[in-house]
């Protein structure tokens, strides 16, 4: 029997430091997130980052937390509830980190008689710290707990026509009535070394301004290329001129070379360039979360206005949009035939 496991990032149990700390520990100790040897990772995370970060992150979570719980979890659950009636197979929802873990999701499907699972990472673009860690964790659990279960994964859907249409339509809908000067595509940042590590050719990804535009098998796993390609396809759909949009990367950690240009740095420059009305979309996420609701919709807005910007629009993620849920359901049904 076939079944589907949707997997998103995850969330602490509450926006309090006591719950944020173990969540951050699990997240940051993942070798696919901070990809350094274990002892160095433990020293960095447990000896330095977790001394201050839980309090800071808890404060940020408190600013966006809903009565129903974590926005990312709530929105993922709403999407799940819309998708399930539209498909002919059982669908479970899990998170890579936190209590709603992948093992529980696979167990739920197993208990329903599922022995063939479509693993669906809810990330449009492929990255070590998102897609790969889900695939590895699911396979690890399968071997240990469900050896007779077969798992197939959904590849990155950054360029799928249905997804591009959903994203373009959502942007267009939210831009209606907003007289914007510029549309910014802000993607989650990753260290440049992650790009090179996922380069299956071991030579193509030089991050030199041309490699992402030069056809290569490396693009199947290149986060940077896929971000640029998503943007290109959406812009093509919207018919925007080159001077009307740009692409940046947000949420970097200090100490490493991360993908550029940086969202916060570029937004600070915009008002002096005459961009007074700014719209920001975050296509690395399909569900609104801390990075979209606090980092962009709150902090970036405050910074933009402090530098002289006048109007700022944070475009919501696809979340549980009916058309997006219909697309996900279509992909599932096509697989389940």
Automatic annotation (TrEMBL):
* Signal peptide feature range: none
The UniProt keywords, alphabetically, are: Cytoplasm, Heme biosynthesis, Iron, Lyase, Metal-binding, Porphyrin biosynthesis
Annotated Pfam families: Ferrochelatase
- Which pathway is recorded for this entry? Porphyrin-containing compound metabolism; protoheme biosynthesis; protoheme from protoporphyrin-IX: step 1/1
Domain of life where this protein originates: Bacteria
Task: Output the GO biological process annotations, alphabetical, semicolon-separated.
Answer: heme biosynthetic process
EC number of the protein: 4.98.1.1
Which reactions does this protein catalyse?
A: Fe-coproporphyrin III + 2 H(+) = coproporphyrin III + Fe(2+); heme b + 2 H(+) = protoporphyrin IX + Fe(2+)
Classification via CDD domains: Ferrochelatase_C, Ferrochelatase_N
One cellular component term from this protein's GO annotations in UniProt: cytoplasm
Q: Name one GO molecular function term.
A: metal ion binding
Which PANTHER family does the record match to this protein? Answer: FERROCHELATASE (PTHR11108), FERROCHELATASE, MITOCHONDRIAL (PTHR11108:SF1)
Q: What function is annotated for this protein? A: Catalyzes the ferrous insertion into protoporphyrin IX.
Q: Which HAMAP family match?
A: Ferrochelatase (MF_00323)
Quote the protein name from its UniProt record: Ferrochelatase
Q: Which organism is it from?
A: Flavobacterium aquariorum
């Amino acid at each position: 029997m076939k079944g589907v496991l949707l997997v998103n990032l995850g969330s602490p149990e509450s926006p309090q430091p006591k719950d944020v700390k173990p969540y951050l520990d699990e997240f940051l100790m993942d070798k696919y997130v901070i990809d350094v040897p274990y002892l160095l990772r433990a020293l960095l995370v447990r000896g330095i980052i977790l001394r201050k970060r839980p309090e800071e992150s808890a404060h940020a979570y408190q600013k966006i937390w809903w009565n129903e719980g974590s926005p990312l979890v709530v929105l993922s659950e709403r999407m799940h509830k819309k998708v399930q009636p539209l498909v002919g197979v059982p669908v479970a929802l899990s998170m890579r980190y936190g209590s709603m873990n992948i093992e529980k999701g696979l167990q739920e499907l197993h208990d329903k008689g599922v022995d063939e699972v479509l693993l669906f990472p809810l990330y449009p673009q492929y990255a070590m710290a998102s897609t790969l860690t889900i695939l590895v964790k699911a396979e690890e659990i399968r071997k240990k707990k469900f050896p007779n279960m077969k798992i197939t994964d959904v590849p990155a859907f950054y360029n799928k026509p249905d997804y591009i249409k959903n994203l373009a339509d959502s942007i267009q809908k939210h831009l209606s009535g907003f007289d914007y000067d510029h549309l910014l595509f802000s993607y989650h940042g990753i260290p440049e070394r992650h790009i090179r590590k996922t380069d299956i050719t071991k030579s193509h990804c030089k991050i030199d301004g041309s490699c992402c535009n030069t056809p290569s098998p490396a693009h199947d796993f290149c986060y940077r290329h896929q971000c640029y390609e998503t943007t290109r396809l959406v812009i093509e759909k919207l018919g925007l001129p080159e001077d009307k949009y740009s692409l940046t990367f947000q949420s970097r950690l200090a100490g490493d070379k991360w993908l550029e240009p940086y969202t916060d740095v570029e937004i600070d420059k915009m008002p002096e360039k005459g961009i007074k009305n700014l719209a920001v979309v975050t296509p690395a996420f399909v569900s609104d979360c801390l990075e979209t609701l606090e980092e962009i919709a709150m902090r970036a807005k405050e910074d933009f206005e402090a530098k002289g910007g006048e109007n700022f629009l944070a475009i919501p993620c696809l979340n549980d949009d009916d058309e997006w849920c219909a697309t996900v359901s279509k992909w599932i049904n096509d697989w389940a035939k």
